[in-house]
């Protein structure tokens, strides 16, 4: 998941080179039929329709079993890996089995970074005592070329690093130890306030002559699970320390500033690999040229099964379309489920999807992304103008019985954001669930199938299907 990184930082990590002729966009806007007016209050027909979707999900939902296969049988799915290709094949077969009108692949070249077999970190005291600590390479890091031992300088911000004299940094590890701000109610905001040190830390340390970067894991949990995640390319290795390891290193540094750290990693970057987005469609009955996209990212980090990040988003997106079909609804606008490839370390799948949408002169009404885990549904974040946000907010009474009526302005998602620069949807929408536990397991070996609750997952698919039903019926 990149979707909680502040937009300015995300642009520094991922280059989104997108364009669309303004004249074509103007023609498309003029050609659109006028959408039906959104209901001012809950309509009984719509209430019954949403109840039908939730009944189908809770009694006969398929998200949980689909996720079981994706995570337990295929497992980790880092871009460029054999498992990523297996996931593509699974996604295509699952959509075809669901009976969608059209299922196809979109080719995209993706980075191929390999973690390697050895990751070892030790604190070495003045008397030679070695303390083994939990570490993992950050995605995209270079290897250490054997054992790398050096002194350590601790900082909490780039400004603090900038103010250090050269001799305090050169030849050492820079240890970034800024924790989450636990006073923030929304953990995603705490993540956004800390993640720049992971993404840019090694690159900034290299500018000062450091030999490596050590980064406190992006979580408020105090445990020994290091959290990986993408980093900006750098000439020196970057590694994450578990929060317990970071606390221990910080404490020992205060008592013994001359201690050293020894790091060993075998990661490397191989040539780009061919991969695919997986796309399934239900064609609109009245306005087939108007598209509503819903998706999650198929790739995952390699430490675990990628259950919450983002296996849940993938199976919920497929399920949203299946629920509409199973409930007997014929969407008025075309509904498209997309399993994006390479969100975690490049966002190339989302970029390519947006490029092809512009090339094919498609009209996108809205795009929805699920990339915040499969926890209890809460609502939706919208990137849209005030009028569009107000229209969607009028549907809150329909969604309230299911606890998914929190509709407000907010971040949507990394994979759908490129659409804004190419085909200009009226709204980019992020599915929002309870995120309090998400960053305990995010990008760690603990992101496994057993952490997902079946009812929470199935409720999420029904919530997304409900919003799609309303968007398809009333448009924006």
From TrEMBL:
Keywords assigned: Carboxypeptidase, Endoplasmic reticulum, Glycoprotein, Golgi apparatus, Hydrolase, Lysosome, Metal-binding, Metalloprotease, Protease, Secreted, Signal, Zinc, Zymogen
Pfam families the UniProt entry points to: Peptidase_M28
Coiled coil: none
Subcellular locations according to the entry: Endoplasmic reticulum; Golgi apparatus; Lysosome; Secreted
Classification via SUPFAM superfamilies: Zn-dependent exopeptidases (SSF53187)
Signal peptide location: 1-25
Peptidase M28 domain sequence ranges: 277-459
Assembly description: Homodimer. The monomeric form is inactive while the homodimer is active.
The name this protein goes by in its record: Carboxypeptidase Q
């Amino acid at each position: 998941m990149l979707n909680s990184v502040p937009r300015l930082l995300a642009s520094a990590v991922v280059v989104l080179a997108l364009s669309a002729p303004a004249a074509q966009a103007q023609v498309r806007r003029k050609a659109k039929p006028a959408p039906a007016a959104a209901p001012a209050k809950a309509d009984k027909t719509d209430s019954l329709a949403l109840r039908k979707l939730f009944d189908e999900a809770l009694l006969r939902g398929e998200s949980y079993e689909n996720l079981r296969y994706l995570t337990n049988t295929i497992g980790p799915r880092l871009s460029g890996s054999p498992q990523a290709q297996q996931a593509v094949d699974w996604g295509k077969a699952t959509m075809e089995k669901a009976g969608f009108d059209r299922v196809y692949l979109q080719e995209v070249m993706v980075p191929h970074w390999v973690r390697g077999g050895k990751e070892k970190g030790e604190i070495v005291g003045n008397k030679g005592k070695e303390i083994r600590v939990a570490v993992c390479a950050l995605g995209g890091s270079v290897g250490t070329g054997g054992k790398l031992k050096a002194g350590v300088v601790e900082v909490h911000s780039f400004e603090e690093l900038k103010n250090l004299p050269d001799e305090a940094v050169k030849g050492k590890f820079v240890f970034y130890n800024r924790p989450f701000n636990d006073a923030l109610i929304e953990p995603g905001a705490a993540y956004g306030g800390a993640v720049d040190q992971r993404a840019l830390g090694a690159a900034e340390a290299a500018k000062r002559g450091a030999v490596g970067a050590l980064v406190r894991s992006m979580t408020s949990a105090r445990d020994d699970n290091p959290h990986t995640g993408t980093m900006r390319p750098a000439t020196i290795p970057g590694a994450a320390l578990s929060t317990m390891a970071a606390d221990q290193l910080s404490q020992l540094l205060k008592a013994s500033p001359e201690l050293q750290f020894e790091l060993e990693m075998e990661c490397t970057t191989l040539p780009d690999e061919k991969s695919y987005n997986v796309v399934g469609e239900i064609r609109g009955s009245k306005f087939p040229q108007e598209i509503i996209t819903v998706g999650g990212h198929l790739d995952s980090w390699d430490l675990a099964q990628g259950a919450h990040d983002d296996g849940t988003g993938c199976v919920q997106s497929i399920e949203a379309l299946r629920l509409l079909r199973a409930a007997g609804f014929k969407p008025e606008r075309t509904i498209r489920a997309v399993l994006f490839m390479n969100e975690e370390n490049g966002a190339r799948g989302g970029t390519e999807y947006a490029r092809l949408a512009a090339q094919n002169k498609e009209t996108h009404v809205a795009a929805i992304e699920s990339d915040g885990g499969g926890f209890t549904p809460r609502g939706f974040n919208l990137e849209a103008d005030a009028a569009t946000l107000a229209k969607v907010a009028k549907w809150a009474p329909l969604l309230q019985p299911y606890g998914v009526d929190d509709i407000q302005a907010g971040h949507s998602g990394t994979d759908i954001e490129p659409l804004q620069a190419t085909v200009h949807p009226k709204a980019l929408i992020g599915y929002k669930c309870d995120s309090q536990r998400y960053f305990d397991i995010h990008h760690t070996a603990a992101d496994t199938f057993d952490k997902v609750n079946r009812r929470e997952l199935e409720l999420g698919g029904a919530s997304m299907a409900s919003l799609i039903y309303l968007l398809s019926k009333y448009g924006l």
